[in-house]
Amino acid sequence: MCVNYVRNRIILYLCTQNTLNMSVSFTLEKRTNKFGECPIRISWSFMGERHQSTLGISIKKEDWDMKSRLVKADAHNHSGKTADEINDLIKRISTNVMDIELACIDNGYILDKDMMKRAISDAMSNDIDCPDDIVERCMKGITSVPEPTPQYYCCEGRYYQYICDAVHIYPYLGSFKILQELFGSRRRIAVPLDRFGKINDGISSSIPFEIVDKEEVFGL
Q: Are residues 103 and 176 in the same domain?
């Protein structure tokens, strides 16, 4: 049994015990269908991008475990899908997402929404049985994306990635760097150039954005 498989099983177990947060979550929609079941919804947020969709599977509210975010044992829906089948799909998607995120962090890649959508579709495909095959197919798309400029900044304990330079529509108002928050709200902000680095021998009227390395940002 490979190390990655064991690691994935441990992480998934911790997730179902609510001891570890993941960027992908599964919830029930409030609406119900004609069978009195609620569609299962997936939400995946990573590095400023977010993908949301339904799994095409529904279950009764009383058969859903809110703590573990899995279907309760021995339950099944109107189409005959059992708890084991639905939960296996949820865990397969979670494993796929986790492996892709780790690969992106290790290599400095950024996923876009189309890649996130395809990653979910591959994980749901009945034609792919091995999680390693899913990851390999997704990584072909990821590695074709040019590596972004590896510039990271920190201000007041928050980390940001450099996106691009920009100028105000009125030139006299100056130039900016566009940054994206890496954790938390993942918002994009425009920061004036005079907010970067130490200014006037370390004396500045505002807290500066200081450049940091990837190791500090991601704890590598």
A: no
